[in-house]
Amino acid sequence: MADALLIFKPDSAYRLAARAGIWGWLASERDWNVESLEWFQPPASLIESHYDFLQGRPFFPWLVDFMSALPVVVGRITASEESLKQMRHELGETQIAKSRPGSLRERYGIYGGLNCLHLSDAPETGAAEVKRWSDFVQLDQVKVRLDDSSAKPDHTYHLRSLATQVAGGIHTDLASQMIRELLAEECDLGGAELEALCRITLGALS
Ligand code: DAT
Ligand code: MG
């Protein structure tokens, strides 16, 4: 059995309908097991090493901010190599515009690298990621219970349409404001936390 690291990134940790949909898939434990789950806010240095192979890419500063701005849900799963491959297939491609229809990222991801979920891509990377994160998180106990349904609305496709406008420089202010309003409706956040979620969402579009 392989270990893999799993992270509900901020766009799925707080958008409650998206989180419920993804959790419904994960909790089915079809041919994998969820071994641990907990809330944890990663320091920027951990994200920089987790994504060290992307250092120097133009989106790297955004990526570090995105992943360290708020507490996220981090966990460990175990699966056979074959099942992990299948899970990655069901997750879908990295960039939302290229994600396979019906995949989790196509269904819940907003735009670009705002793609909901991290899952180690192979047993070797899984082992390395679990080892690295174990210095910060225990990864041996399910400490959070997530809901598999939510009364909050799911604005994914509306958000994607608005994000495409902002990224294209079309109605930027109006579309950005509407993104803020829709995110607020989807989440249970207020104040500085909501502001952080809006910042990292809009940050993916510039
Ligand atoms: P994955 O998350 O599918 O394993 P990855 O490991 O290549 O993808 O990249 C890690 C994260 O970095 C990815 O989830 C989002 C971000 N990222 C990668 N390539 C990107 C790109 N071209 N534009 C925006 N974000 C990107
Ligand atoms: Mg990866």
Produce the secondary structure layout.
Elements: E1 2-8, H1 10-13, H2 16-27, E2 32-40, H3 44-50, H4 60-68, E3 72-79, H5 81-91, H6 104-108, E4 117-119, H7 123-134, H8 156-167, H9 172-186, H10 191-203
Antiparallel strand pairs: 1-3, 1-4, 2-3
Helix pairs in contact: 8-9, 9-10
The protein binds 2'-deoxyadenosine-5'-diphosphate and magnesium ion.
The CATH architecture classification of the largest domain is 2-Layer Sandwich
Q: How many strands, which pairing sense, and closed or not: the largest β-sheet?
A: 4 strands, antiparallel
Mean pLDDT: 98
The CATH topology of the largest domain comes to Alpha-Beta Plaits
Bound molecules: 2'-deoxyadenosine-5'-diphosphate, magnesium ion
How many discrete structural domains? 2
Total helical elements: 10
CATH class of the largest domain: Alpha Beta
Which structural category do the helix and sheet elements fall into? alpha+beta
